[in-house]
Amino acid sequence: MIRSKTTRLGRCGALALAALVAPTPGRTGEAVPTPYTVIGDFDGETKDDRAYDLSGMACRPADADGSRLCVVVNDENRGAQFARLGGTTLTPGAVAYDLGTAPARDIRGMRPAQSQCSGGNGKFDQLDGEAVAYAAPYFYVTGSHGCTRGKRKYKLSSMILTRLRPNADGTAATETVSTYRLFDALMAAAPVRDYVLRDLEFDWNALPPEGTPQPNGLNVEGLAVVGDRLYAGLRAPSLDGKAFLVSVPVEALFADGNAALSAEVTTIALEAGPDAGIRDLTILPDGRMLVLTGSSRNGLPVPSRLSLAALPSGTLTAVATLAPVRGESEKGKVIDGKAEAVVPLGPGQVLVLFDSLRNGAPHAYAVPIPEIDAPTPP
Questions:
Q1: Average pLDDT over residues 184-212
Q2: Are strands 264-271 and 3-7 parallel, antiparallel or unpaired?
Q3: Could you tell me which residues are beta bridge partners of residue 69?
Q4: Letter string b/e over residues 280-312, b meaning 16 or more CB atoms within 10 A of that residue's CB
Q5: Is-contact 296 277, C-beta < 8 A?
Q6: Which residues on neighbouring strands pair with residue 22, listed in sequence order?
Q7: Cβ-count burial 216-240 (b if 16+ within 10 Å, e if not)
Q8: 73, 175, 184, 242: most buried by Cβ count inside 10 Å?
Q9: Nearest CA to 355 among 306, 295, 276, 307?
Q10: Which residues contact 95 (CB under 8 A, 6 or more apart)?
Q11: pTM, rounded to two decimals
Q12: What is 244-299 written as a DSSP string?
C-alpha cells in the first residue's frame, strides 16, 4: 500500500567553442558566470552527434588526484555518460549505461499503463533523461516521467529510474538496477498526481480557444537523495506559485520483484514564484539541499535562481539569481542557454550546465551560500 501526505511548503574543439559561448551581461545582483573547458564532446542523440541537450549532472567527492567522477545525462540519449571534472575542465568518458531499444525483463515494479498524452504512444528509445543524483556508492538517473514536449507522446523509456554503481576508475558500471516505481510515487502524490501524463503544454499548431489553461503536465527535472529518501523535483506542474518535491524511501523503489510501490509518499510545496518550476536539485557537502528553479514551460520570462530548501518543511532561502549564458544552438542561432544542472564545486561556488548549448556550456558561479546557523541577511 502507498500512503501519501502533503506538507506545505578534443581540446581544439573546446577552445573553438569557448569563443561561441559567453556570459550575457547580467543585471545588478546577478551571479556572473566563468566558463569551464570541455575536452572533446559528449555524445549526442547518436554517438557521432555533438550534445546540445545535456540536462543533468552529479559528481562524487574528489579522488586522490583531486578530480571527480561524474555522471551526465542527455535528454536525447538512451542512457547516461561518465565524465571527469578537474580544475576548470570537464572531460566526457565512457557510456555509464544504455537502456537499449526494448524494456529489460528485470526492471523492478509494474510497467506504467496509464497515458493521457494526446500524441498517443511513442517508441521505446530515448530515456528523456532529466536528472542525476549521487549518494555513496550509487549514482541515480531518471527519465522525465512525462509526455514528450514536442509530439506529446507517451514513451515507456522515459518512465524509468536507474541506480548504478561505478567501478573503481569510473570506466564502467559494476551494478545497474532500474525501476518503474517512481511513477507509482508520482501517482500517489497529491496534488501533483492529477497532472501525471498530461501534455506539458499546448500543441502550438492547433491552439485551443483563448483563455484555455495550459495542461501543465507533470515532468521530473531534479533528483536528490538525502538519508534514506529520494526526492524528485518537478518542473511542472507549477500551481499558484508553488513548485513541488516528491519524496519516497529509496529502498522501496528498488525492492526486488515486480510488485507496485509500498511506501509512504510525501509531497513538499516550495514557494518558488509564479510559473517557476524545479530545474535541478543537488546536495551540498553539509547535507543541505540546493534547488535550481526556472521557467515551468518553455518561453516564460522566469529567471534561473538558486535557493536552499529546508527539509522537511520546504522553506526556501534565496541564494542567487544566475546571469544567463549565451551561445550558438545546434541550428546556429545565438540564444540564452537554459540552466538545467547544478553541481557544488566548493564553498560558495557551483557549476551550472545549460540545455540547448553545445556540451552544456559549463560555467562556474560564485554564490553567497550562507553557512549553517549563520544569520540570514535582511
A1: 87
A2: parallel
A3: 84
A4: bbbbeeeebbbbbbbbbbeeeebbbbbbbbebe
A5: yes
A6: 326
A7: bbbbbbbbbbbeebbbbbbbbbbee
A8: 73
A9: 295
A10: 43, 79, 80, 81, 82
A11: 0.92
A12: EEEEEEHHHHT-SSSPPP-SEEEEEEEE--TTEEEEEEEE-TTS-EEEEEEESSTT
Distance CA 253, CA 229 (A): 10
DSSP one-letter string for 36-93: PEE-S--B-SSTTSBP--EEEEEEPPP-TTS-EEEEEEETTSSEEEEEEEETTEEEEE
Classify residue 277 by burial, with Cβ atoms within 10 Å: 0-12, 13-18, 19+. Answer: buried
Per residue in 113-134, pLDDT (tens digit) is 877 899 999 999 889 999 999 9
CA 128 to chain centre: 10
Closest by CA to 8, choosing from 307, 273, 289, 243, is: 243
pLDDT tens digit string along 240-296?
999 999 999 999 999 999 999 999 999 999 999 999 999 999 999 999 999 999 999
Instruction: Choose among 320, 309, 261, 257: nearest CA to 283.
Output: 309
Query: What is the torsion angle, in degrees rounded to the nearest 10, for the CA atoms of residue 305, residue 221, residue 56 and residue 117?
Result: -140
Q: Give the integer Cα–Cα distance in Å for 43 and 173.
A: 18
Is there a contact between 124 and 81 (Cβ–Cβ < 8 Å)?
A: no
What is the end-to-end Cα distance of the chain in Å, rounded?
45
Nine-digit cell string for 134: 549521487
Is 358:51 a contact under the CB 8 Å cutoff?
yes
3-state secondary structure of 108: strand
CA 248 – CA 261 distance, rounded (Å): 10
Which position has the grid cell 499546448?
202
Sheet holding 89-98, edge to edge: 37-38, 89-98, 79-86, 68-74, 54-59
- pLDDT, average across residues 55-60: 97
Count CB neighbours of 104 within 10 A: 10
Note whether 152 and 214 are within 8 A (CB). Answer: no
Closest CA to 353 of 19, 18, 58, 68: 58
Using an 8 Å Cβ cutoff, are 220 and 259 in contact? Answer: no
Mean pLDDT of the region 357-371: 94
